[in-house]
Each structure stands twice: as structure tokens, then as C-alpha cells.
UniProtKB/TrEMBL annotation:
Pathway this chain belongs to: Purine metabolism; 7-cyano-7-deazaguanine biosynthesis
Role played: Catalyzes the complex heterocyclic radical-mediated conversion of 6-carboxy-5,6,7,8-tetrahydropterin (CPH4) to 7-carboxy-7-deazaguanine (CDG), a step common to the biosynthetic pathways of all 7-deazapurine-containing compounds.
UniProt keyword RNA-binding present: no
Gene (name only): queE
Keywords carried by this UniProt record: 4Fe-4S, Iron, Iron-sulfur, Lyase, Magnesium, Metal-binding, Queuosine biosynthesis, S-adenosyl-L-methionine
Protein name: 7-carboxy-7-deazaguanine synthase
Name of one Pfam family that matches: Radical_SAM
Family of the protein in this entry: Belongs to the radical SAM superfamily. 7-carboxy-7-deazaguanine synthase family.
Cofactor note: Binds 1 S-adenosyl-L-methionine per subunit. Binds 1 [4Fe-4S] cluster. The cluster is coordinated with 3 cysteines and an exchangeable S-adenosyl-L-methionine.
Organism name: Dyella flava
Domain (Radical SAM core): residue spans on this chain: 37-227
Catalytic EC class: lyase
Length: 231
């Protein structure tokens, strides 16, 4: 840990062990708005920090700040809401190595656990019980060069690959990448429009026209709550 970083200040001033602590932006109870578990009442654990800067990111408030929390404390707060589903997201959750411990403990506690991850960080050590929802970043995100293609080899049938699409050019990139890597043979593939960028109906029609083996999704929480905090 770099001297003078926020983490090292926390670690030297805190009385408790840092071995099982994570920097957390928020924990909230909502309806899952994305991917295969869409619609389920879910507790979200949003980890602070991300090494990417997707131009359309809707969660820039999670890049900095947050609070250091013991993993057992996080589990206790999750339990209060009495939900079967837990979604670990961020920021980029896997940027904090101890996220792997949180995922493992959530699975041991019996939750249906999903992980939203950028696809830029190795997913090979994620607990196999976790449903990974892994992005491949399309060119208009500005972060396409960060895609870690070896991650495709670590996907399980219950995982999902998500491509967030901002333009027709992004769509064509996504269509070609799915075909080239036969991603739909590995797991479910989701195409999602960038909220406010590409017309959702246009994306839906392109998928129909090209007869793609992918699932269209809209961010349900944005339709329900228009991006309000805590949802
Ligand atoms: C905020 S990210 C956090 C997890 C991880 N960093 C990632 O990118 O997957 C959660 C999901 O929201 C998607 N997302 C972020 N901003 C979006 C936007 N403006 N429109 C549609 N999806 C968006 C991301 O692509 C990702 O699939
Ligand atoms: N309701 C709701 N569902 C979500 N699914 C993934 C989210 C995320 O930010 O990763 C998210 C979110 O922020 N809210
Ligand atoms: S990787 Fe995720 S959290 Fe990071 S900038 Fe991109 S969408 Fe936002
Ligand atoms: Mg979100």
C-alpha cells in the first residue's frame, strides 16, 4: 500500500485489524434492475473505487470516498433486509482483493450472490457459486483496451456477459465479438443500451433484424426511480 494513501492512513490509525475490511460506498435494498436476476428484491453492496473511467458511467460517485467496513459487519447489515439475493457492485468490486472474501462469505451464508464486474480484472478466483455479470467494454466507453479476454475462459454457464451499447458502431462491435468468441455458447449474453444515448427501440430492432442469440435488457431501476440514489 502506498505511503500516504487513504488506505494506509486508515490502516495505521485503526485499532481493529484491516485483514477483513473493505471500502464501501453504500449498502441498499432495492429491486434488481439488471441481468438474469432482474426483478428480485436484492441487497446491493457497492464497493468504492474503480481503475476505469467509462465515459457514460452512472456511478462516478463511487470512485472516491466510502467507509472502511469489516466484512462481518457488511454481512450483518445485509442480513437486516431479509433478501435472498445480494449483488456486489461498485465502482469495480474486484479492484479490492478482499472482495473475494466477501463473496465467499455471502455464498456460505446461503445468499444468491451476483457480481457486477467490468471484465478488466481477472475473475478466476471468484467463488464458483457467484453469478458473475461481466461487462465487455465497447469502443464508445473509451475503455475497450482494458477488456481482459482471458476472462472469457473463466465463465461458467450461470454467468452472464453484458455489453453496454452507446451507438450503432458499438452494436456492430458487440455483435461481431459475440460471434467471434462464440460467447453465447458459454453463457447468457446481454445487450443493454447506454441510458440516454442509444434509442432502446433501435437496439431491440437491430437484435431482431440480425437474429442475434442475445438478451436485450433495460436498466429497470432507471425506469422505476430515474437514477435516484439508494436504488
Ligand atoms: C456501475 S457498473 C459497476 C460494476 C463494474 N465496474 C462494471 O462496469 O461492470 C454496473 C453496471 O452498470 C453499467 N452501466 C454504467 N453506466 C451505465 C449507463 N449510463 N447506461 C447503462 N449501463 C450502465 C455498467 O456497464 C455495468 O454493467
Ligand atoms: N436497482 C439496481 N439494480 C442494479 N443492478 C446493478 C446495479 C449496479 O449499479 O451495478 C444496480 C443498481 O444500482 N440498482
Ligand atoms: S468499470 Fe464500471 S464503475 Fe468503472 S467506470 Fe466503468 S461502468 Fe463505471
Ligand atoms: Mg447502477
Amino acid at each position: 500500500m502506498a505511503i500516504g494513501s487513504q488506505a494506509s492512513v486508515e490502516e495505521t490509525t485503526s485499532a481493529s485489524s484491516t485483514a477483513e475490511r473493505l471500502r464501501i460506498t453504500e449498502i441498499f435494498h432495492s429491486i434488481q434492475g439488471e441481468a438474469d436476476a432482474i426483478g428480485w428484491r436484492t441487497v446491493f453492496v457497492r464497493l468504492t473505487g474503480c481503475p476505469l473511467r467509462c465515459v457514460w458511467c452512472d456511478t462516478e460517485y463511487s470512485f472516491y470516498g466510502g467507509n472502511w467496513r469489516d466484512i462481518d459487519d457488511i454481512l450483518a447489515e445485509v442480513a437486516v433486509h431479509g433478501a435472498k439475493h445480494v449483488c456486489v457492485t461498485g465502482g469495480e468490486p474486484l479492484a479490492q482483493k478482499r472482495c473475494l472474501i466477501l463473496l465467499h462469505k455471502l455464498c456460505d451464508a446461503g445468499y444468491e450472490v451476483s457480481l457486477e464486474t467490468s471484465g478488466a480484472i481477472d475473475v478466476s478466483s471468484v467463488d464458483a457459486r457467484v453469478r458473475k455479470v461481466m461487462d465487455l467494454k465497447a469502443p464508445d466507453s473509451g475503455e475497450s483496451q482494458r477488456n481482459l479476454w482471458s476472462n472469457l475462459g473463466h465463465l461458467l454457464p450461470h454467468d452472464q456477459v453484458k455489453i453496454v451499447i452507446a451507438s450503432r458502431a458499438d452494436y456492430e462491435w458487440a455483435r461481431d465479438v459475440v460471434a467471434e468468441h462464440a460467447i453465447d455458447k458459454r453463457c447468457m449474453v446481454l445487450f443493454s443500451p447506454v441510458h440516454g444515448a442509444v434509442e432502446p427501440r433501435a437496439l431491440a430492432e437491430w437484435i431482431i433484424e440480425d437474429k442475434l442469440p442475445v438478451r436485450f435488457q433495460l436498466q429497470l431501476h432507471k425506469l422505476l426511480w430515474n437514477d435516484a440514489p439508494g436504488h
